[in-house]
Design a protein that fits this description.
alpha+beta, ph1033 like fold, six-stranded mixed sheet, two-stranded antiparallel ribbon, 7 helices, 8 strands, about 20% strand, disordered C terminus, DNA-binding, THYN1-like_EVE, nucleus, EVE domain-containing protein, 5hmC_binding
DNA sequence: GCCAACGTTGGC
DNA sequence: GCCAACGTTGGC
């Protein structure tokens, strides 16, 4: 089967959780070469990882930092196996509600391939996405090489529409566009920042209740991640065992959140938002 | 550090 | 099974 494409977020800046630094930057990644993507504690992201195969392509994304964006290219090097860090009480992402007899959290191994020659800032991606708000538009001159199709592909990225998903699918054409951007660059003199005014502004603010809006959009593509079928227990220590540097350092995967979801059995199909938006 | 967006929990 | 309250993500 042709390799699929994904985007995975890590935090390049230091952040201490339970006394441990969860930072994992592109430099850290290049140094260790292969890392166990532990710490994902969101059911949808976990299910997506379970659907990955060796050889699938991964975009390594810098999140929760000054300049978020795509920093490197990587590849899945080991399919999903139980995330043993969930059972370690001292680990930043320990989850008391899961046990070895019935693993709840999984991780894959990801191997570094190359740095993006031109770091692709989220601000550029968002800027391009905003240019074609309604109809499909031509790209700015600086990145005209991505074409209209490239603009469309970017606009449909989960990164734009599902901002909080830490592990997300990337369409093949979108991958090609991003690869091209990383290779050619050209936007350095472009103003991709939203400019002064606060883009996130929303009219009347109403503390709660906002969840009502319907953004139904791009979650359709996320279908097919239900999985069910339990990846059977695979021993976690094949390439490096717990306690090894890779783990000691911990990366900045997603934090906790989530739970419930499966409880007794494996989750129901594609549960993304449970409820939330409608 | 703020806070909007949105995912999760728990009462009913 | 709905939905308000709460907690987290992550851009800015």
């Amino acid at each position: 089967m042709a390799p699929k494409h994904w985007l995975m977020k890590a935090e390049p800046d230091s952040r201490i959780v339970k006394g441990k630094d969860v930072k994992f930057s592109v430099d850290d990644f290049a140094t260790v070469s292969t890392t166990a993507w532990e710490g994902v504690r969101n059911a949808e992201a976990r299910n997506i990882m379970k659907s990955m195969h060796v050889g699938d392509k991964v975009l390594f994304y810098h999140s929760n930092c000054k300049n978020p964006g795509i920093a490197a290219f990587a590849e899945v090097s080991k399919e999903a196996y139980p995330d043993y860090t969930a059972w370690d009480p001292d680990h930043p992402y320990y989850d008391a509600k899961t046990d070895k007899a019935n693993p709840k959290w999984y991780m894959v191994d990801v191997t570094f391939r190359s740095r993006a020659k031109h770091f692709i800032p989220l601000s550029l991606i968002k800027h391009l996405a905003s240019l074609s708000s309604s109809s499909v538009s031509d790209p700015p001159d600086e990145v005209d090489y991505i074409g209209k199709e490239g603009m469309k592909a970017i606009k449909e990225m989960a990164l734009i529409n599902r901002g909080r998903l830490s592990v997300q699918p990337v369409e093949e054409t979108t991958w090609a566009v991003l690869e091209m951007l990383a290779e050619r660059g050209g936007w350095d003199d472009m103003n991709t920042k939203p400019s002064k005014r606060n883009t996130r502004k929303v009219p009347a603010k109403k503390p709660q209740t906002q969840k009502t809006k319907g953004k139904s959009s791009a979650k359709e593509d996320l279908e097919a991640f239900q999985d069910e079928s339990n990846v059977e227990q695979i021993d976690a220590g094949e390439d490096y065992e717990p306690g090894h540097a890779t783990i000691g350092k911990t990366r900045g995967r997603k934090r906790k959140a989530e739970t419930a979801v499966d409880a007794s059995s494996e989750e129901p199909p594609a549960r993304r938002s449970t409820r939330a938006r409608n």
